[in-house]
Amino acid sequence: MKNHEKDIFSVIDVSIDMGGCFETSHPTTHSNPIFVVDDVVHYCVTNMPGAVGRTSSHALCNATLPYCLELARLGLDSFIGKSRGLAAALNMQGGRILCPAVADAFPDLPRS
């Protein structure tokens, strides 16, 4: 966005619920959604997808469906064998939680 007096920059921190992706970010609300640091307008409203539930559901489905189809086509072992990123996305296998963050959230369930 350009202003005749000076350039104005803005950021939208969509990962604010997980701690944010900018050093200058902090959570905001819909009633007070923006703040300025170093001439940069920040928008850091938490749970942004919740404000547009239908749209965010469609976006999530569109982003994940290709992975689901590939998983169904290849089977689990071949699918996670394609890359370290896909293997790292596996949270549970054989009744055991693999991901430490998920295991911490469910301490009563078995972990690997």
Question: What does the secondary structure layout of this molecule look like, with pairings?
Answer:
Blueprint: E1 9-12, E2 34-37, E3 40-43, H1 48-51, H2 53-74, H3 76-80, H4 84-88, E4 92-93, E5 96-97, H5 100-105
Parallel strand pairs: 1-3
Antiparallel strand pairs: 2-3, 4-5
Question: Could you describe the 3D structure shown?
Answer:
- It is a single chain.
- The chain is an alpha+beta fold and 112 residues long.
- The chain has two domains: 9-49, no CATH class; 52-105, no CATH class.
- Helices cover 38% and strands 14% of the residues.
- It has helices at residues 48-51, 53-74, 76-80, 84-88, 100-105, and strands at residues 9-12, 34-37, 40-43, 92-93, 96-97.
- The strands form two sheets. The chain has a three-stranded mixed sheet, with no helix packed on it. A two-stranded antiparallel ribbon has the order 4-5.
- Strand 2 and strand 3 form a beta hairpin.
Shape category = elongated
As a percent range, the share of strand residues is 5-15%
Helix content: 25-40%
Number of domains: 2
Poorly predicted residue ranges: none
Largest sheet: 3 strands, mixed
Number of helices in the DSSP assignment: 5
Give Rg in angstroms.
20 Å
Q: Roughly how many Å apart are the termini?
A: 49 Å
Query: What's the order of the H and E elements?
Result: EEEHHHHEEH
Give the averaged pLDDT, no decimals: 91
List the strand order in the largest sheet.
1-3-2
Structural class: alpha+beta
DSSP strand count: 5
